[in-house]
Amino acid sequence: MSRELPLLRWLWGRPSVKAVVTAGLLVTVLWNLKCFIRSSNSSDEALKHTKVLTVLVWEWPSRQVPDLSGDVCREQYGIAGCRLSTERRLLSQADVVVFLHTTLPRGRDRLPRDRPHGQGWVWVSLESPTNTRALAGWNQTFNWVMTYRRDSDIFMPYGKLVPNRSATVSIPTKTNLVSWVISNYHRTQKRAEVYKNLSRYLHVNIYGKAAKKPLCKDCLLPTTSKSKFYLAFENSIHQDYITEKLWRNSLLAGTVPVVLGPPRANYEQFIPADSFIHVDDFSSLADLATFLKTMNSSRYQQFFAWQKRYSVKLYADWKERICTICATYPRLPQGRLYPDLQSWFNS
After folding, report:
1. pTM value surpassing 0.85
2. Residue 202 and residue 194: Cα distance in Å, rounded?
3. Among candidates 287, 285, 241, 286, which has minimal Cα distance to 261?
4. Looking at the annotation, which residues are catalytic?
5. CATH of the domain at 282
6. For the chain, which terminal residue's Cβ has fewer other Cβ atoms within 10 angstroms, N or C?
């Protein structure tokens, strides 16, 4: 041992050895520091993703506010980390505040003037631009939009097809050719013009307030399911504006939709090309009427091939719609305001 000490002192005294050892110690310290920082960041990310988001709905869309107690989003829709509330006293604590256009006050000054740092405001509308008024006064107000349009920050369609491998084709018994349920009928609408001309060539069974034949909530699907075809005519023509007229009144009911809305290519982004008939597929409404009246059983059944792979999911519950905000939240752009909401929605 006594011989080794002088040797160690000699080695340590050499500049090259001292530099190597010092460098090694420095590398070790820096590596440990990097691991510590990475671990801290991972912990911060974990906390960020496990944080329960508080979503305040400024005014619920229906008169009766549902029970929002408990973990509604997780228990009913499988969306964790989401707390819904309509209590405005929680404004300072809310991560997101939701404003439905149909419940917005007339003036911006009736909404909170200041919002907590990092709080996001969502503008919600399921109506088309044709039926949406007074947007000009809401510039520089909302961070995100939630609409039926696929380019929305939070996409909320009226329905969709979901994969279902065990599905089988089920076509209800048919007793008539064509039906249509219509509540708001205005002669200036394109659908009114198309119906008027189409009815010259075939009979359409009409129901709803406009026809003075209202249907109860549980009567609608059993009624439309008896028709071979259903007129899924939208009240206005806009990109992606495909409503419950297609999803519920037609596909879910088990009848073939005859659609009037955006171009066929737009519909095909939502449903298979062979699952519907588009008014624009024909050079005249007389040709469309002939096609419907002369269709044989084999050709008709082909329209239901989609049922072998999919089933219809409706989005009709506002609780589920609001819970979807939490599922989308990690991907939402931060720190942005829509400078001109009207221009965006009308584009």
Report:
1. no
2. 12
3. 241
4. 127
5. 3.40.50.11660
6. N
